[in-house]
Amino acid sequence: MLNTVRTEIHCLWHSVPGDRFHARYRRVRKKAVTESVGPRVIRVVLAVICFLIGGSLVFLPVPEFPFFIIGGALLAAESSWLARALDRTELRIRIWISRLLARWRGLPMAGKGFVGAIALSAACGELYFICRLCVN
After folding, report:
1. What is the rounded CA–CA span in Å between residue 61 and residue 88?
2. What is the pLDDT of residue 117?
3. Fewest beta carbons within 10 Å, which of 3, 31, 58, 67?
4. CA distances from 7 to 14, 21, 54 (A)
5. 94: which residues sit within 8 A by CB, 6+ positions away?
6. Would the pLDDT of 55 be above 70?
């Protein structure tokens, strides 16, 4: 089973952007002919658990995004519509990140320092707020 998970992660990681989730959907559908209902139910239950973990981590200063990605990938294996939606979303996010990086690279050093100081200030403010919630 661990080998299968490694293979699926490898296939997802090395697939073509914009087609990786739908390709996984097609691979799972091809295997679905021989498998029982059990693995499908397990995928949906694991996806719900990942979404619940990610949702509970939203309020803490820890990365919750990977849990949403894993949950989405698990559900995309069961839904062609969701797989296509995730592929389109991935392409849009890639375009957005490339524009953001181009803008970042164009900033002078003082501008990068200013943006970094604002981000650090926001992170410290969030950490202070969370600490105050935990103490009270």
Report:
1. 28
2. 92
3. 3
4. 11, 14, 24
5. 17
6. yes
Query: How many Cα atoms sit within 13 Å of 70 on the Cβ side?
Result: 19
Q: Are 51 and 67 spatial neighbours (Cβ–Cβ below 8 Å)?
A: yes
How many Å apart are CA 124 and CA 118, to the nearest integer? 10
Residue with tokens 């979303």: 89
C-alpha–C-alpha distance, residues 109 and 129, integer Å:
30
Record the tokens describing residue 57, joined without a space.
């981590």
Q: Is the pLDDT of residue 131 over 80?
A: no
Please give the structure tokens belonging to residue 26: 């097609």
Q: What is the CA radius of gyration of the chain?
A: 19
Q: For residues 16-44, b (16+ Cβ closer than 10 Å) or e, as one string?
A: eebebbbebbebbeeeeeeeeeeeeeebe
